[in-house]
Amino acid sequence: MNKNKILLCLIFSSIIPIMSNELFSLLHERYSFPLCDTSSANVYCIMFSSHYKHVLLISRCSTMTQKNRPNPSQDRSQKRVQKLLEAAKDLLIEEGYEDMSIQKLSRKAKITAPSIYRYFPNKRAIIATFADVFLEAQTQAIHLCLEKSLRGMDWQNVIHTFMVLLSEGMKNEKWIAPAQLAIRCDRGLRDVHEQLINDIADRFTLLFRSFRCTQPDDELFALTRMLVLLLDAFMLALGRITEEEHPRAIDEFKAVIVSFYQNHIPQK
C-alpha cells in the first residue's frame, strides 16, 4: 500500500465515529486525498478526531491574522507583486505546486529571478501569501452566512450555503485547489496551514453564536475548528472531482457535518 493510501486510511479511520457506516463507505470510495507527507499522519489523525475534547488537546494558535503577504510601499513594486501572484496562479493551474519553480515563475511573469527573490524567498512564500487570500474570502462568506442566520435561516441551510460558496469559488478560481493542496501537504507550510485553520475557526465562532450555541469559548472554538477541518477535507474532495459532481459532494459532506453537529447546536 502506498503512502497516500495509508494516509487516506488513517484520516478516514479517525473520523468514522461521526458518520454512519454507509456514509463512511461512500466517502472512502469516492474521494481520494493525495497527502504527500507521511510524517504528518499522526497530526491529521488527531485533528480529525470526532471527539471535540480531543481536539482541545491541540494547542490553539493566535487568532491574529498572519501577515504572509508582501507589502511594498512603492506603486511599481505593488504592481510587480500582483503580477507575480497572477503568474503563480496560472502555473498552479498548468503545472501544479510540485512542478512550480521560481525559474518558471520568472519566465511566466517576465520578471527576473533576482527581482522575484526581493519579494518571495521561495515558492512556499508565494503559497503562504495565498493563505491570506483564502482567509479573506472565507471571512466574507462567513459574514454572508451570518446575515442569513440572523434573518432566520436554520443552521443546516446556513452550512449548506457556505459549502455552495466554497464550491462556486473553486469553480471560478481554478488555482484554489492546487494552492490549498500545497498548504495542506507541504511540510514547510504546516504552520501556515495550522494558522489558517485556527483563524477561520475563530471567525466561525460568531456564526455558531447566532445558532444559539452557549458552550464556553474554548469548547465552542473546538467545535468550529472541527467544522473547518471537515470543510478543508471537503475542499480537497472538490479538487479531485469534476464540477458536475460538486452537488453530490456537497450533499454527502453536509450529511456528515449535520450528523455530528445536531447534538451540539440547539434546534429552533
Structural overview:
With 268 residues, the protein is mainly alpha-helical. It has 2 domains: 3-66 and 123-261, no CATH class; 75-117, Homeodomain-like (Arc Repressor Mutant, subunit A). Helices cover 68% and strands 0% of the residues. It is built from 13 helices and no strands. The chain has helices spanning 3-15, 21-30, 41-47, 52-55, 75-95, 102-109, 113-117, 123-150, 155-172, 176-185, 190-210, 217-238, 246-261. Helix 1 runs parallel beside helix 3 (41-47) and helix 8 (123-150) crosses helix 10. The longest helix is centred in the middle third of the chain and has 28 residues, at 123-150. 33% of the residues are buried. Mean pLDDT is 80; it is low at 1-19 and 32-66.
Keywords summarizing the entry:
single chain, 268 residues, mainly alpha, Arc Repressor Mutant, subunit A, 2 domains, 13 helices, elongated, disordered N terminus
Structural class: mainly alpha
Shape: elongated
Radius of gyration: 19 Å
Q: Beta fraction of the residues? A: under 5%
Between the first and last Cα atoms, what is the distance in angstroms? Answer: 47 Å
Can you summarize this structure?
The chain has 268 residues and is mainly α. It has helices at 3-15, 21-30, 41-47, 52-55, 75-95, 102-109, 113-117, 123-150, 155-172, 176-185, 190-210, 217-238, 246-261. It is elongated, with a radius of gyration of 19 Å.
